[in-house]
Design goal:
Blueprint lengths: L21 E4 L2 E3 L4 E7 L3 H12 L3 E8 L2 H11 L3 E4 L8 H9 L6 E6 L4 H10 L3 E4 L4 H9 L7
Parallel strand pairs: 3-4, 3-5, 5-6, 6-7
Antiparallel strand pairs: 1-2
């Protein structure tokens, strides 16, 4: 069923990840001029679908995948190696901070951005210490979101 927990809601098959580039080898892609490759991790299906829809409409952003389940997300980002990983840190399973930490330690050094519903001072500090490059509210407008993502420091490969 599309949109089910841990499954991609935009692929042709419910369990199929969203791939917008031509696969060359596992984890390697031939990307066109689509833009910045972004992966979205959000456990609430309706929120994830709304954010995915919003991201897909931003020129210069290519949504390469999305997931709600923490372990599925980590496996998929390891395979897809997006430039930017957007993570909601406030999760019912309590794994938000750990997701940030693991994503930030990935071998290809993605930019990790926390995109959250409301700001909490201790959480802002904690996700920064865990490796997040930005801590933004979901209410940010699309133009500002793109501007903030593009302003991230270059990745060190």
């Amino acid at each position: 069923m599309p949109g089910a927990r841990g499954q991609s809601s935009l692929g042709t098959h419910p369990a199929e990840p969203i791939l917008l580039g031509k696969a060359l080898a596992d984890g390697e892609r031939l990307w066109g001029a689509m833009g910045l490759q972004v992966y979205l991790i959000e456990e609430h299906v309706q929120v994830r679908e709304a954010l995915a829809d919003r991201l897909s409409k931003i020129a210069g952003v290519e949504l390469v995948g999305q997931a709600g389940d923490a372990q599925d997300a980590l496996r998929e980002v390891e395979r897809l190696r997006p430039q930017v990983i957007l993570i909601e840190s406030k999760r019912e399973d309590g794994l938000g901070l750990e997701l940030v930490r693991q994503a930030a330690r990935s071998a290809w050094n993605p930019q990790v951005v926390v995109l959250t519903t409301y700001e909490v001072a201790w959480e802002r500090r904690a996700v920064r210490r865990a490796g997040a490059h930005e801590y933004l509210l979901k209410e940010i407008n699309s133009a500002e979101l793109l501007k903030r993502i593009q302003a991230l420091p270059p990745r060190m490969m």
